[in-house]
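Tokens in:
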């Protein structure tokens, strides 16, 4: 994975999803975003960056420091430990270079990045500036994504990112049906970001 990998989703998040959700809330704004198969933190940090930029475009919301923010990331213990190291600045994030290859850099990158050579630098500066907010807002949740503990967190989320999560499952996977049944039984159905057509067939709300 790499920073801003799913840029089209992030653009939609900034322009179509976040404004109506946050504008509809009062002075005390809150947001819960969960990630299935979260990887080593690049996806979460990309979403965090998009969230900060959205707030900068809406000064009437106040600063992002006032936002009641919760990130929930679910993966293996080893992957989550690496994600935490990268979020703390102790290990580098992966940056997209070109032609599907990745390279790692602690802060800066020389090659064009998302059509803007300054973007990677801006992400690094932004993460460093809001690192405390990022770490305090993140819940690292290891274990089976189909467990009751994880499902409860997902069902209580405003937005869920599930990119590439079901790619490794067999074609006829009963857990997909269990997942759909669980989510449909909840009072709060989140917006789903996914690139998996099988998941799109199972869930009623998605992007």
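Residues out:
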């Amino acid at each position: 994975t790499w920073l801003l990998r799913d840029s089209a989703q992030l653009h939609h998040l900034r322009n179509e999803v976040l404004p109506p959700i946050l504008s509809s809330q009062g002075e005390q704004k809150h947001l819960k975003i969960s990630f299935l198969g979260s990887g080593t933190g690049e996806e979460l940090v990309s979403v965090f960056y998009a969230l900060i930029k959205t707030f900068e475009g809406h000064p009437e919301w106040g600063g992002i420091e006032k936002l009641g923010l919760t990130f929930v990331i679910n993966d293996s213990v080893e992957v989550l430990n690496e994600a935490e190291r990268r979020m703390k600045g102790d290990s580098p994030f992966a940056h997209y270079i070109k032609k599907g290859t990745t390279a790692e850099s602690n802060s800066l990158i020389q090659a064009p990045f998302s059509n803007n050579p300054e973007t990677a630098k801006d992400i690094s500066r932004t993460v460093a500036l809001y690192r405390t907010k990022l770490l305090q807002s993140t819940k690292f949740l290891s274990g089976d994504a189909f467990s009751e503990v994880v499902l409860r967190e997902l069902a209580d989320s405003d937005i869920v990112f599930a990119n590439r999560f079901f790619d490794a499952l067999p074609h006829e996977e009963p857990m997909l049906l269990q997942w759909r049944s669980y989510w449909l039984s909840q009072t709060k159905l989140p917006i789903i970001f996914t690139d998996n057509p099988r998941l799109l067939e199972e869930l009623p709300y998605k992007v």
